[in-house]
Automatic annotation (TrEMBL):
The gene is nadE. Catalyzes the ATP-dependent amidation of deamido-NAD to form NAD. Uses ammonia as a nitrogen source. The keyword Metal-binding applies. GO terms for molecular function: ATP binding; glutaminase activity; metal ion binding; NAD+ synthase (glutamine-hydrolyzing) activity; NAD+ synthase activity. SUPFAM superfamilies: Adenine nucleotide alpha hydrolases-like. The lineage of its organism: Archaea, Methanobacteriati, Methanobacteriota, Stenosarchaea group, Halobacteria. Transmembrane segments: none annotated. This is NH(3)-dependent NAD(+) synthetase.
Length: 275
C-alpha cells in the first residue's frame, strides 16, 4: 500500500451510526468482554499501548470501567515520527483516567534493529513496521512481568482491510473493539467521554511523518465502512455497492482487493495437513 493522491469520498455513504441505546449496549458488552477475558486467563491486570488516537483512548476508557484504573497499565511509546501533541494526549488520557503509565522512547530500539540490518535503512514500510513491532515487544515485556493481558485496539474496518501490522499492533491477547466500524469507534468514544480532540483526530498509524490512514488507504473512513458493510460483509455486488455509496467502481474493487489480500492476517499461520 502506498500513499494515494486522492482520498475517495462517497456521495451517499450508509448511516452506520448507533443509537444511544445501542451505544450503551455496546459499552456493556465490551466491558463485560474485557472482564471475562481476564477472568478466563486467571489474571487481574491488563496492558495497553496509548497513542493519543481514538482507538486506544476508547479501549482505555472501557478497560478502566471493566477492571478498574488500578489494574490497567498504559504504555506511551513515542518515536521520532510521532507528533508531540498526540503523544501528550496519550499521557493526558492516562492521567485523566488515573492509570499507571510509562513513557518509553522507542528510537534506540529501532536504531538497534537498523544497525543489525542496515539494508532496511530508508525502507519506509519495513522500518515503520519495526516501530509498531517494537511496541508489541514492550507490551509483552510488561504483560509477562505483571501477569497481565495485552489489550488490542483493532477495529472492524482495520481488520477487514488488513490495515495493521502482522505481529505488531495485531499481536495482542484480545480485540475488545473489533466489532465496531471506525465511525462507530468515534461515536462510542464520544459517548464514554473520550476528549473531543482525540475522538476527532485524523487517524494515523504513526509509522512515518505525515502518514494518515485515509491517505494511505485512498478512501475516507465513512465511505470505506459503507463499502465493507455492503460488499464484503453483505452480499451486494461491486456495481451496486458503487452506486449505493456513490463512488467509482474502482474504489469498491480496491477495497475487495484489500480484503482478499489480507486474509493471512486474520487467521493462524497455516501448517501442512497431518499425515
Ligand atoms: N498471502 C500471504 N500469506 C501469508 N503471509 C503473507 C502473505 N502475504 C504477505 N504475507 C506476510 O505479511 C507481511 C506483510 O504484512 P505486514 O508485515 O503487516 O506489512 P504490510 O501489510 O505491508 O504493512 C502494514 C500495513 O498496516 C498499516 N498499519 C500498520 C500498523 C498500524 C496501523 C494503524 O492503523 O495504526 C496501520 C500500515 O500503514 C501498512 O499499510 C509480508 O512481509 C509477509 O511476511
Ligand atoms: N506512539 C505510541 N505509543 C503507544 N502505543 C501506540 C503508539 N502508536 C500506536 N500505538 C498502539 O498501536 C495501536 C494501533 O494504532 P492505531 O493508529 O490503529 O490506533 P489509534 O492510534 O489508537 O487510533 P487512530 O487509528 O485513530 O490513530 C494504538 O491503538 C496503540 O495501542
Ligand atoms: Mg493512531
Amino acid at each position: 500500500m502506498s500513499e494515494t493522491e486522492a482520498i475517495a469520498k462517497g456521495d451517499s455513504p450508509l448511516d452506520l451510526s448507533l443509537s444511544a441505546a445501542e451505544l450503551d449496549a455496546r459499552r456493556e458488552h465490551i466491558t463485560d468482554f474485557i472482564a471475562d477475558q481476564l477472568d478466563a486467563a486467571g489474571v487481574d491486570r491488563a496492558v495497553l499501548g496509548l497513542s493519543g488516537g481514538v482507538d486506544s483512548s476508547l479501549v482505555a476508557h472501557l478497560a478502566v470501567e471493566a477492571i478498574g484504573a488500578e489494574n490497567l497499565h498504559g504504555l506511551v511509546m513515542p518515536s521520532s515520527v510521532n507528533d508531540e501533541a498526540t503523544m501528550s494526549d496519550a499521557e493526558r488520557v492516562a492521567m485523566e483516567l488515573g492509570i499507571e503509565y510509562d513513557v518509553i522512547e522507542i528510537n534506540p530500539i529501532v536504531d538497534t534493529f537498523l544497525d543489525a540490518y542496515p539494508e532496511a535503512e530508508g525502507e519506509k514500510m519495513a522500518v515503520g513496521n519495526v516501530r509498531v513491532r517494537a511496541r508489541a515487544v514492550l507490551n509483552y515485556l510488561v504483560a509477562n512481568t505483571e501477569n497481565a493481558l495485552v489489550l488490542g485496539t483493532g477495529n472492524r474496518t482495520e481488520s477487514l482491510t488488513g490495515y495493521f501490522t502482522k505481529y505488531g499492533d495485531g499481536a495482542v491477547d484480545c480485540h475488545p473493539i473489533a466489532n465496531l466500524y471506525k465511525q462507530q469507534v468515534r461515536q462510542l468514544a464520544r459517548h464514554v467521554g473520550v476528549p473531543q480532540e482525540i475522538a476527532e483526530r485524523t487517524p494515523t498509524a504513526g509509522m512515518w511523518v505525515d502518514q494518515t490512514d485515509e491517505g494511505e488507504l485512498g478512501v475516507e473512513y465513512d465511505t470505506l465502512d459503507s463499502i465493507l458493510a455492503l460488499a464484503i460483509e453483505g452480499e451486494v455486488g461491486t456495481s451496486a455497492t458503487a452506486r449505493i455509496v456513490g463512488v467509482d467502481r474502482e474504489i469498491v474493487e480496491r477495497v475487495r482487493d484489500l480484503f482478499e489480500q489480507s486474509g493471512h492476517k486474520r487467521s493462524m499461520p497455516p501448517a501442512p495437513a497431518k499425515l
